[in-house]
Amino acid sequence: MEPGGTIATWQQAFEEYRIPATRAIEKQLRASVTRDKEKLRALVGGSYRELLATAEAIVALDAKTKAAEEHISTISHNCRPPPHDLSARPPSSNKAALAQLRLLQRCCTTSATALRAQNILQCAQLIVISRLLLKSLGDQQGLARSLEILTNKISLLRRRLLRQVDAKLLNPLSTRSDVLDSLCSYCLVTSVSSEDALAYFRQLRLDKIRRQLTKSGDRYTICDALRYQIESLQTFKSLTGRPIADAMNNLQRRPILADATIKELELLDLDTVWSLLPVEIHTFVPYFKRITLSPEEMRSRLEAWSVEASRVLSAALDSHLSNMTNVTDVLEFRKELYTILLPSYFSVPASADIAAQIRHCLNQRLTAICQTQGSRLNDITKLLLEGTNAEDSAKSLWDADLAQASLSNGGSRFIKQVKNRHAGLNRVLSKAARMLDAWILSVNATQNQIDELPKIRWRDIVEEPEEEQEDDASRLIRGLSETDREAYSRELQEALRVSLSEYEKSMVEAASLIADDASSVYRAVTLLRSIRTSLVALQRAFPDDTRFDDLDAIVPKLHEVVANEIARQLSQSTRQGRKSDKLIEAALPEKMPSPAAFSTLRRLCQIMLDIGGTDLWSPPAVHAMKKAIRHQVSDAGQKSNYARNEFDEAYLGAALGHVLPEHSSKDAGSDMTARAAAEYWKRTKSLFGVLG
């Protein structure tokens, strides 16, 4: 290998050199590695020898230092002065009382300073010392006035301290150390046990939730209350057990005046008055009643608190939901509530009970909304039936006011008027049709929103469960996505089924009354239009739920009422308009109807238009009308009013369907006449629009 050359990989060596050269390069590299190992071994060995020499020097120096220290200690011991009697004389009672009074005044001042600095535990400790000093000075008559003033100050400080303790305990942003200090302070100034302090803490939080929801029960307040309840349960859980016990033990580990935080207060000047204080104040250690609860009892108390808080929350939730009538708002509120609860679902005690309460309130309200939404069809049905009694009739499609109507805004209003007049709808029925369309849209929109529930990714929102909680998490997500959707959809479909059943029942009852009263033709026509308008819309929107067998059975009776009225008016108009016709039968054109037959059909069409317009004549209605007219035309006593000859009878039979003239002696001639009349009807039926 050339001097200064480098080889990065073994592939490079084989690519750039021949095999003999590559072997030579290998030998060079091995020799170089051996030389480097020898150099490194020599360097490390020399450094190790130097390190050993330094360590030996340090050990020797340490031995000399210890010997010098022992020598100096011996000299110092021999140079001590002779002992003296240092026994202290007991201080006088007045001097001790004044020292305690001075310390009491300083405790009041320092307590106020600590309270302003929000050092509530230090303030509570100083208040306890102040009470001990007041008790110690209670028999000093000369200090009664000063002691009364100081007693009032201490009482005021105590009340201010308790208010600040309440504020700390109520604040959801307080850290665990702040809460523990507040609980310890409460125990110090009220002399209660730690369990009583926790019970007081829980009651404070519950009262705040109750006040908050009583003051305002809107959506944001309910969400804040739920969030506060969850945070409170997490705080309660983190405090029970060792944390609160350790905090209490720290207070009882040493006397209050021996606490470093108290001794370091320069304003107290404890070094000056220490010897003048009674022993019971020197050594005072706070005592707290110990109540040890099992984990089951702790959990039971937390669950009881959660049940009470959930009851308050449920009452506010029910009150707020009662004002919500839109399914969209309720479902959005549902998502918001579960978004607050689920991120800490498995770490919060009694979270399943909270979720059950929320679900119960939401399901109850959604069920009521679905039922209300279904019952709106009853109001529309009443309006449809009111349209049958309305005095205003449908306006004609050919009125001049419609032709001169404004076409502004794209002519939407003009188009609606044309549709309503073509359908024969009066003002009430037009309003009912609009309401029905809006109701169908709202029902379909509700169903679509319910069907969208499984698309919410609850798995991304819920707290990550432990391995043993996976089944609970799966059940929870399945309930939110599938079970609730099926329940809501089932309630909506049930409400829809009931409302459609009530619709059919109301329509059938109204139709039965009209069918029994032959004089109410206008009501029958209007009811037929109501049924047609509503039935078409309902069957198009809900094809699986609209099998109205009873309604289908009663509609032909309404057709009969209308058909009988048409037959009556036709008979009346025929008698009134009949003129003496002296034209002999032989003079009539061959294979053409007489003017009497032709006029009969024209009058029939006019009566049909006058009674039912152009919209009423569906095939069943036309069939019922033709049946009634056939019966009248074929009557032997009235036949001459409508037909003059055999061809007229055949022609009317072709127009009215299935009625042939009576056969003469020559059957072949009658058949030819019937075929000729049928052929003539095919050519002329366009002249009779509603009849053809």
Automatic annotation (TrEMBL):
<dbReference type="GO" id="GO:0015031">
    <property type="term" value="P:protein transport"/>
</dbReference>
<comment type="similarity">
    <text>Belongs to the COG1 family.</text>
</comment>
<dbReference type="GO" id="GO:0006891">
    <property type="term" value="P:intra-Golgi vesicle-mediated transport"/>
</dbReference>
<keyword id="KW-0472">Membrane</keyword>
<dbReference type="Pfam" id="PF08700">
    <property type="entry name" value="VPS51_Exo84_N"/>
</dbReference>
<keyword id="KW-0813">Transport</keyword>
<dbReference type="InterPro" id="IPR033370">
    <property type="entry name" value="COG1"/>
</dbReference>
<keyword id="KW-0653">Protein transport</keyword>
<protein>
    <recommendedName>
        <fullName>Conserved oligomeric Golgi complex subunit 1</fullName>
    </recommendedName>
</protein>
<keyword id="KW-0333">Golgi apparatus</keyword>
<dbReference type="GO" id="GO:0000139">
    <property type="term" value="C:Golgi membrane"/>
</dbReference>
<dbReference type="GO" id="GO:0017119">
    <property type="term" value="C:Golgi transport complex"/>
</dbReference>
